[in-house]
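Our preliminary data section would be incomplete without showing what the modeling component actually yields. Below, a chain of 474 amino acids is followed by its predicted structure, encoded as tokens that our downstream tools consume directly.
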Amino acid sequence: MSILKKIIILFLVISHVSWAINIPDLGEYSDQFISPYQEKMIAREILYQVHSSPDVIQDEEVNDYLNFLGDKLASHSDNPQKDFTFFVLKDDSINAFAMLGGLIGVHTGLFMSATNESEVASVLGHEIAHVTQKHLQRVLAKQDRDKYKSIFLLALGLLAARSNPQAASGAIMASQAMNVQNFLDYTREHEQEADRIGIEILYKAGYNVGSAIDFFNTLQKGSRFAYSAPSYLRTHPITSDRISDISNRLKDYPYRYINNNNYFHFIRGKIRALYSDSSSIKVFKKNIENKTYVNLQGEQYALALAYLKENQFIEAEKIYQLLKNEPNPLIDNLHISLLIENKKIGEAKAELEKLLIKHPFYRAFVYRLAEVNLILGNFKEAQENIQNYIFKYRSDPNLYKLMAKAYKGLGKDLEYHENMGEYFYYQFNLKEAIIQFGLAKKVKSNDFYAQSRVEARLKQLQNEQLLIQEGRKQ
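Predicted structure:
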């Protein structure tokens, strides 16, 4: 079920919920209109949709790359302490959007249209500026609060409205709520401010600020041959005045040559090969033959993944041989995939152990070593290895799911349900997390400390649920 469909259902099911009850007259101050607690709860609801939707890419290499890039930029903003969460939506349209709670979504189409990392960074810097300057809160604070029944309903519409404005309108009208996009559009002043601050962030982070205008020019050229403008131009209208303003600002910054490494091009290749509806083996082969590619190695990598996706392992192996000397963990992971597909599980395990010495916190290798150990029945080894990484990645739901599988193999039901509970908790599914901890509590065990740990955690989650319920009534 898509994010949009889920939001429609949620609108219909909980339309009686109101966070706006008894809100005092707070004037036009954005911080007062939506409290930090309400913003946190809104972000939690959206993140639940993000984690549960098939429209959102759950690929550790893509997500780690995007979050590394986003965090690098955010650290150079005027609010470096602000928590940001970046995620990728499977959508070939060119778009990116910021929401309450420091959430920033990026469409796969943005990666596919960009020619270098600086262009993607320029868009992220702009969206980070929208967040740090509280533009969305400022827009909402100017609205007549009596026009909508609850901030909570508004929160659920944010993801749909920002990711797909046209479809969101229908969803919200179907639920008899306001057309969110009509009053979520940023003002001209907001866009200019985000441009100015975004360019400053881009420069401080070491990128080529000229990429900001390069990307907009690319979008405008593409829209000349399309029936409608790219989504990013509809949600972030760019006029000749705005382009002129950006160009004038760029004069204050020296030219900076950026020697882009291949990591961006490999990530872009992975997105095009695995998460696009318009790319195929035939497309990649033709681009390589005609030399119509942005980066040769990136195009070859995309072709190898496309072969792998279609179970053409011999052809994928041929491409890997061309790339194997490339010092990049994405290429190493391609090799691991080929070993596993060829049933060389032991060899894959040995290779992963070497790779984790070289890249000790590369999560794709952490996951794959755990999966290989589970295949081999090395449940205790898998459990011990995963536990070491949970200390570093405390909020990573995938590690808890892998841990649960290891405990299942060891026949430890209490620990299985305990870790499944943590898996759901860090996917923001508090209801299912409580159910799993309830099941863990019912398991008969001679381990007093494990039982006490489960009971304490269950009580903690139940108290958190009560706080959320009370917060919605305020």
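The two ends are 31 Å apart (CA to CA). Residues 3-250 form one domain. Preliminary results of this kind motivate Aim 1 of the renewal.
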